[in-house]
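I had to read the description of the data format several times before I understood it. For illustration, here is how one protein appears when written out as sequence plus structure tokens:
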Amino acid sequence: DREAVRHHYDVSNAFYRIVLGPTMVYSCAYFDSPDEDLDAAQEGKLDLICRKLRLGPDDRLLDVGCGWGSLVLHAAERYGARAVGITLSEPQAELARERIGAAGLADRCEIRVADYREVSDGPYDKIASVGMVEHVGADKLGEYAESLRRLLRPGGLLLNHGITRVSPRPWDRKSFIASFVFPDGELESAATVIGALERAGLELRHVESLREHYALTLRRWLENLAAGREHAIAEGGPERERIWRLYMTGAAQGFERGDLSVHQVLAAAPAAP
């Protein structure tokens, strides 16, 4: 898992900044309208997650697959949470810590280079997993759900945000995206993900599809890449720029057609009022 994740994420942080913009959020934004600015839509997504989790002051939040720390920062700054983010990418962790220090939130935020199965300091009041479940794979979904369930306090909330496969075609391990972009990645249906969470003892509370939002997000990323193409090539090389351009174009079409979707699933640990 470490090798697969680092293949995709241990690229120049500057390359990702060109594509993602200043928010450094690498997951589906949440648009109030199709014309909304990408940065505002990403802020809206971060806030949507915090509101769904009912984050409160001093809540312990675990962000699984925290990327460059944007949700950790938002939760601490806007909601007063005490947030721990985990990632398997050293460059991500380094930049996330820099951003936390610059925001003066080092006393409320911690970034660890760790796998979700290595976290042992629960319970947490709330857990967010955003754009990470796609890396787990069908064979490990049960272990993933059980690991997060063990880390939640009674009555705690988990928000799982991930791309889902709508098409009945089986996942092609030799496809372009599996070969060149997300090695060992695997997309499952929303029902499969929800089933794993329920079998782990979590109660399903809310499900929302953001399919159209991801198509818009990918189109905005493509615009950023086109505008900064020369810089992107200088940072990541011509092959990586071309691969990212092709994968994001194909993904945008997949979300527009309805072959792909993305679901936010809110689940609760029982045994509390």
About this structure: The mean pLDDT is 94. The beta strands are 60-64, 82-87, 109-113, 124-130, 152-165, 203-209, 260-268. The longest strand covers residues 152-165. The longest helix spans residues 238-257.
